[in-house]
Design brief:
The complex is a heterodimer. By secondary structure, chain A is an alpha/beta fold. Chain A is built from 20 helices and 10 strands. In chain A, strands 1, 2, 3, 4, 5, 6, 7, 8, 9 and 10 form a 10-stranded mixed sheet that branches. In chain A, a hairpin with a 5-residue loop joins strand 6 and strand 7 (237-240). Chain B is α+β, with helices and mostly antiparallel strands. Classes of the chains: A alpha/beta, B alpha+beta.
Chain lengths: 531, 198
């Protein structure tokens, strides 16, 4: 038996930002950037490792809105258009910097990177679902799901029906896209409310994750603190996040991503270069935006930035991977001396941290897997929670504490002066939806069913935790407010049509085309039956 | 004659090719979907007498409420014309910890609010405690009159539990270095892609 286990968990999520009605959408750009900088580089990294027979075991949570965008034909085409323009820009940059070796090198790096991304994307014919599914089949990753639209359950879950709908739709969507029921579920923002686990249990979810204090403050006090899961009253296991390893990777100041040799995120040619030159690659209105081509390294705590040197950054990623390995090895060695079973150290991260915020993140992960594999003495083994629960089926019963991984650990990020007004509307709409589902349980009429399904879709989209989060952070607030209002207003209008049995078919069709998430959604998920 | 025919055929072929490539180079057609109109506002009222409590953290609750004109009229019918204006809106916060529905004996405190408010942050300052909030009015003659009662909420813990399961006694080594005492790590939150530029 190994001395201990490390569970690396990447949670990948973006809100549903599909905008066919707009020629250029800043929100859609989040998706394009994340595909280019995070999702495809992670896939490539895992393929390189598998190619070299390095064992990979990684848990990846793909939120239903993200997976739905990956599977969507329109989003696939839009991304291709984005990538083609990016390749064009990179080629121009290679030419522009031809006489400046410092930047030329970096421009070449981007060009190569984008060409490889293009190749990967074309190989999968634009469908990244296939790519993730393939890695799941190979046993490299364990794919888990999240709540349907990443709803923040402790606050939207006033009615049990809402939590159940968020879970059921997610599990169903996951099965449809990935061909297997998910073993685990990533609670959006690790937001846990005691009792929600009973709903997870009904959908055969075996585990979820909590921030450290969610487990540390569980009742009774857990024997192994966060180094073994606890079992909730309903029988679902809760794994707690390890704080030490979290901070090393997360923190922009003390953590690895702040190293001076790493790429500076905030210097982008979209802002730096001559307007006329860069104009075709920024917002059509002329608003300067990030292009993804960033030529500087962090350099230091100064505004003066030096050019990025890819080899130096790679070298640092390697050193940092070694440091992480060293720390985990010592942590595990220490814990193992006292524990009567091998400890598990759970390291969950937002996937978008790797590649998007921390450009070298995917390299760091790759080095980490390679270095662990190269050691003869096996300091620890990478594991998924499913594997762990199979090996250690008996765990301590305890009720975790209401918690999240947001600032200060509870609900305040999603409930404060900037966003508290939404809950009145979300709760009232949810109640109306539940009443509709109960009332029209046995409905046969096809058009009415479609209207009810669309009402459920609009409500789910309004429940996305991202809108509250964006309102709180203060950037693109109008967008978040607009989305919340639009989906809720659509919901109320649909409800009116349903109750009056007078449905505007043309308008319904338009809605079905724009807000097309969960194509086989059944509004009855909101019914109270069995709650 | 043959030459002219060849030229025509070539022309047609070139036309087809030209059409094919222009068409092909436009991979994403802009869809002509309805342009968004200015967003109308959400309903200001839902026509329902209600008060809803949410937990913010171990020490704070949030409540929002709605009182319908019908409720107000009923109040006036019962307690006399002008009784609404003569009374003062109050939030009564029951601490139901340990005795779930015993409103008679539960300790409570009151917050005087204003008629203009429709939501409030309540400082309860008590982790792991159970609360229920009544929205009512204090009338000089009739005393406290309840209008609506909230759902019951429980604040989370802010420290490790004192309850120990003898079958699973805590291991000191596991608790050292697990970050206990530091409390939740501040500032860790989803760095989604929309974070502001510095």
């Amino acid at each position: 038996m190994p001395l201990g286990y490390v569970a690396l968990v990447l949670h990948a999520h973006l809100p549903y930002v599909r905008h066919p009605e707009e020629e250029y959408s800043l929100a859609e750009k989040w998706y394009h950037e994340a595909v280019t900088e995070t999702y495809i580089p992670l896939l490539q990294m895992i393929h390189r490792l598998l190619g070299d027979r390095v064992p990979v075991r990684l848990t990846v949570s793909l939120s239903p809105p993200l997976a739905s965008m990956m599977a969507d034909d329109f989003m696939q085409k839009r991304y291709l258009r984005y990538l083609e323009r990016l390749r064009e820009l990179a080629a121009k940059e290679v030419w522009r910097t031809r006489n400046d070796p410092r930047f030329h090198l970096v421009a070449r790096m981007y060009q190569k990177k984008f060409e490889e991304i293009y190749r990967t994307y074309s190989y999968y014919r634009g469908n990244l679902i296939t790519a993730f599914r393939e890695l799941q089949e190979e046993g490299a990753i364990e794919l888990i799901t999240c709540a349907a639209t990443h709803g923040y359950l402790p606050l939207i879950g006033l009615q049990r029906e809402v939590v159940r709908a968020q879970v059921e739709v997610a599990v169903h969507n996951h099965l449809r896209l990935f061909g297997r029921p998910p073993a685990g579920l990533w609670l959006p923002e690790c937001g846990y409310n005691p009792g929600d686990d009973a709903i997870l249990k009904r959908y055969n979810i075996k585990y979820f994750f909590l921030d450290a204090h969610g487990v540390l403050y569980a009742t009774p006090r857990p024997r192994y603190s966060i180094f073994a899961p606890v079992v909730t009253p309903s029988g679902v296991a809760a794994f707690g996040r390890d704080l030490e390893s979290s901070e090393q990777v997360w923190s922009a100041q003390e953590g690895y991503p702040g190293d001076f040799d790493y790429r500076e995120f905030y210097r982008d040619i979209g802002y730096d270069l001559d307007y006329e030159y860069i104009k075709p690659y920024i917002h059509p209105s002329g608003l300067r935006v990030d292009t993804g081509l960033k030529y500087y390294r962090i350099t230091g705590k100064t505004d003066w930035k030096e050019p990025y040197v890819p080899e130096w950054a790679s070298e640092k990623a390697k050193i940092h991977a070694g440091n992480f390995l060293f720390n985990r090895e010592h942590q595990i060695k220490y814990l193992a001396t006292y524990m009567d079973r091998p400890p598990i150290v759970v390291c969950p991260y937002d996937a978008e941290l790797f590649g998007h915020w921390w450009f070298e993140g995917p390299q760091w992960l790759e080095f980490l897997f390679r270095q662990v594999a190269s050691l003869a003495h096996q300091p620890f083994v990478f594991i998924t929670p499913s594997d762990y629960l199979e090996r250690f089926p008996k765990n301590q019963p305890a009720t975790p504490c209401m918690s999240s991984w947001g600032n200060n650990g509870y609900n305040e990020v999603w409930l404060d002066g900037a966003n508290d007004w939404i809950y009145r509307h979300l709760h009232n709409a949810a109640e109306a939806m539940i009443n509709l589902a109960n009332r029209f349980m046995a409905l046969q009429d096809e058009l009415m069913q479609r209207a009810l399904n669309q009402a459920a879709r609009e409500l789910l989209l309004a429940q996305s935790s991202d809108w509250a989060f964006i309102m709180k952070t203060g950037t693109m607030v109008d967008y978040a407010v607009g989305r919340t209002k639009r989906h809720l207003l659509n919901f109320w209008k649909l409800k009116e049509g349903i109750e009056q049995k007078n449905i505007d078919k043309k308008w319904l069709e338009e809605l079905e085309e724009i807000d097309n998430i969960f194509p086989d959604l059944n509004y009855r998920v909101f019914a109270s039956e069995g709650i | 004659m043959g030459l002219v025919l060849t030229l025509i055929l070539l022309g047609i072929a070139a036309g087809i090719l030209y059409w094919y490539f222009t068409y092909k180079r436009k991979p994403v057609e802009k869809k002509h979907l309805p342009v968004k109109q200015a967003t109308p506002e959400l309903p200001a009222r839902y026509g329902k007498d209600q008060i809803v409590a949410l937990v913010k953290d171990p020490y704070w609750l949030y409540v929002y409420w709605e009182i319908t004109p019908e409720k107000k009229a009923e109040f006036e019918r019962r307690y006399g014309p002008g009784s609404w204006e003569a009374s003062q809106p109050i939030l009564r916060v029951y601490d139901l910890t340990g005795a779930a529905f015993d409103f008679l004996h539960a300790p409570y405190f009151e917050i005087a609010i204003t008629d203009a408010a429709d939501n409030w942050y309540i400082h309860v300052g008590r982790p792991q405690s159970t609360f229920c909030i009544d929205l009512g009015r204090y009338h000089p003659q009739h005393g406290f009159i309840v209008l609506v009662r909230s759902n019951i909420v429980t604040t989370p813990a802010d420290q490790p539990s004192k309850v120990i399961n003898p079958l699973w006694p805590p291991l000191e080594a596991c608790w050292q270095g697990a970050g206990v005492g530091k409390g939740p790590v501040p500032g860790i939150s989803s760095p989604i892609l929309v974070q502001p530029r510095r």
